[in-house]
Amino acid sequence: MNYLEIDKNHLWHPYNSLPSKTPIWSVKKTKNCKIFLEDGRVLVDGMSSWWSAILGYNNKRIYKSLKKQAKNMPHIMFGGLTHKPACKLANNLVKLTGFNSVFLCDSGSVSVEVALKTAILYHKAKGENRYTFLALKNAYHGDTLGAMSVCDPENSMHSLYGDYLSKNIFVKTPNMGFDADFCEALEDLEEKLKENHKDIAAFIVEPVVQGAGGMRIYNPQYLQEAKKICTKYDILLIFDEIATGFGHTGEMFAYMHTNIKPDIITIGKGITSGTISLGAMLTTKEISDVISNSSIEVLMHGPTFMANPLACSIANTSIKELLSFDWKTKVLEIEKTFRKELEVLREKKVVKDVRAIGSIGIIELNSDVFAQDLQNFCVQNGVWLRPFGKLFYSIVSYTISKKELEKVIKTMVKAVNEIDKKYEKCLK
Ligand code: PMP
């Protein structure tokens, strides 16, 4: 059987045509921070499978719990039934976050859908119909329709789906930089809320780092001030921690860089350390009580694989593993290394900015035509990275060795040097 032919003829890859017009590499196996290709090459993983594999791949204890749970009960419906893995996970998440009410679902995007629904139901329970959401420019919250409707309309897939998407309101993003000024963004927020607050159910934000919409790092104090304004207008604040959660920014959750808590958070990705899909929406007791004690009574959502025991069990072991070592020091070391080693690129003509936070190192380019060249160069040099548009970035697992991290960064630097030569030629 020619697997690659099957892939080419039948399998859609993310954001791609069929067959893919860009290279697809075939993976045989993974181990911690290494990806073994079918053709015998070994790549150091600089992507942690899109923010998810925080503990690398094939963690022994996670594998053991997967095996045990699979033997005992891989799945059972959650309607009218419960099980220890879900209860244990709820307890773990409540302890980690301080939220009270947990909805376990299939993926990050679905948890965003559940968060949006919860906000609508909260206001409905209080006798108000509020069907509009506020989001930041450059936002990315997932690929399902509700989640897409709160993604930046210009910087996402909105134009492809046109009027099918709900109309929401977008506000200015805070300036780039962990210590940067955010006055203009705050003024815009206040203005938009003043005008539209009666229709707005919630303000949804990726806290501290906006991911796919630009890998933008901003000042956490913006969130503190935003919370005050939202409270004034009785607008719920939703933090989408799907990407930032479980340590990526140097805190367990990005909102922990602030002195406030939102009303709702959504999590996913790192919750199972990239082993299996799982998402969750967490909220306060006050909000779940308002819905449950109203005539609405129920949170009207219930996917077939909700609280899948296998996923819950894996998540419990992953959380235990994460808490069993000094992940924070490791993440801060990674941040320092990215910051120091990528700095040499700042002077390059093709480079607009370099920045880092936690386990994330980012090179923003002045041109979006080099993404494929960069990726090809990295694979040829033994590193897996997947740049998109003007963003050439790496998010590494916390279990990466010094040598592996060095290899990822050195390859990024070499790759940028290569395209810089081409860019200079284009400029002439
Ligand atoms: N929100 C954010 C901030 C994300 O980065 C992502 C995933 N890229 C999602 C939501 C959607 O999560 P999933 O891909 O698990 O549906």
From TrEMBL:
It is found in: Cytoplasm. InterPro entries: Aminotrans_3, Aminotrans_3_PPA_site, BioA, PyrdxlP-dep_Trfase, PyrdxlP-dep_Trfase_major, PyrdxlP-dep_Trfase_small. The record marks 15 as: Participates in the substrate recognition with KAPA and in a stacking interaction with the adenine ring of SAM. It is an enzyme of class 2 (transferase). Its EC number is 2.6.1.62. Its cofactor is pyridoxal 5'-phosphate. Substrate binds at residues 50, 140, 269, 302, 386. GO terms for cellular component: cytoplasm. Its main location: cytoplasm. SUPFAM superfamilies: PLP-dependent transferases. Catalyzes the transfer of the alpha-amino group from S-adenosyl-L-methionine (SAM) to 7-keto-8-aminopelargonic acid (KAPA) to form 7,8-diaminopelargonic acid (DAPA). It is the only aminotransferase known to utilize SAM as an amino donor. HAMAP family: BioA (MF_00834). Homodimer. Belongs to the class-III pyridoxal-phosphate-dependent aminotransferase family. BioA subfamily. NCBIfam families: bioA (TIGR00508), PRK05964.1 (NF004624). This is Adenosylmethionine-8-amino-7-oxononanoate aminotransferase.
